[in-house]
Amino acid sequence: MVDSECMAISCANCLNLFSSRDVKRGIRFINSRKQILLQDELTIGSAAQWRVQTNGTITIDSSGSTATLTIEDKKMQVQILSGPSSAKFLDLPSSRTANAPQLIAGTTDQDNSPARVLAIDIPAGTTTLQVLWTPQWNDQNFKAVQPPSIALASWRLDSHN
Amino acid sequence: MFWYDPSVEGAWWDGLALDNFFQDPTDLWGSFRSSWTDNTGMYMAFKAGALLNHQAHGDLDAGTFVIDAMGQRFAGEYGSGDYLSTNYFSNETQASQRWTYYRTMTEGQNVIAINGQNQDVNARPTMIKGESSGTQQGSSTVFDVPSGSTAYMVVDLSTAYGGQ
Asked: Lower CB count within 10 Å: N or C terminus of chain B?
């Protein structure tokens, strides 16, 4: 797909000649509303970053595929179920990256600390990123489930049972 | 805008569906919960409305969500930036200074940022599909989610990123 604005050789706002951007997101409960699945399906011509602002203290396991967010004594486990092979969680400050538009001189942001950003870097290309949110319920009867991998177009009420 | 009706009495949650889709494309969003009366349950909300026509009070946040569980908000939004900051309410154009502040820019939301860039203000997100089991809470404040009760929402955000 060709963006007609980008046919000129120089194009100040042109992020990517011949870029194709398809971005879909789905969110759902699973396991009788005890867990949440967040799924992104992307076709992108530039690298991207998945970001979540959190008040939780972030810890990330050695594989980078499981993060735990802790607020007081409550813990939320966040897992990358599938994504690019390079995908791993990052613990970033709650402020803009170097790629983002910058503040105009003389202006400032609020300080959002101690909030942090849980992030995942995504390379250009076609990607399905599935992230599972599992609260560490104080319930000995709770059993976490790992949902099946299903394209967003095939999500139904009973698709993840 | 939401307002409080003080004349409402009794168990307002009795017969109230756990999930709701608000489908006006200007403010498209969904709310989904495990209970109306237990704030230690699970709640999620997901929005994919247009980014224009919010009187310069919106954020570049198509596709953002919040998640609550066990009485805490684990994925959250900051709300407003500094109302007194320069040009905070100037306009909603792509070049508006409003979008240079972290709390209103795309990187300040719970969404994907491509190359760190702000979403396109002309975005026209759509809900591809959204369904709910239709579960309603009963008269009691004690409510157990029936097995298999669920809801989901799928949106197309391509136009927020220069796609179609």
From this structure: N
Q: Name the residue type at position A20.
A: S
Beta strands of A12-73 (E only): which ranges?
22-30, 35-44, 48-54, 57-60, 66-71
Which of B34, B44, B74, B101 to probe by mutation at the A interface, max A CB count within 10 Å?
B74
Tokens of A83: 């994504």
What are the chain A neighbours of B82 within 8 Å (beta carbons)?
110
* CA–CA distance, A75 with A70 (Å, rounded to integer): 5
Q: What is the pTM of this model?
A: 0.92
ipTM, interface predicted TM-score of the complex: 0.95
State pLDDT tens for residues A4-22: 444 444 444 444 444 568 9
Q: Cβ contact (<8 Å) for B152 and A26? A: yes
Average pLDDT value for chain A: 91
Kindly report, residue by residue over B21-54, the tens digit of the pLDDT.
999 999 999 999 999 999 999 999 999 999 999 9
Higher pLDDT, A34 or A16: A34
Phi, then psi, of A26 in degrees rounded to 5: -130, 150
A134-149 mean pLDDT: 97
| Widest CA span in chain B | 51
| Residues 6 or more apart whose Cβ sits within 8 Å of residue A36 | A27, A28, A29, A30, A132, A133, B42, B44, B67
Edge-to-edge strand list for the sheet holding B151-156: A57-60, A66-71, A74-82, A125-135, A35-44, A22-30, B151-156, B126-132
Report the alpha-carbon angle B8-B14-B16, nearest 5. Answer: 90
Residue B90 · residue B81 · CB < 8 Å: no
Half-sphere exposure of A48 (CA within 13 A, CB side): 28
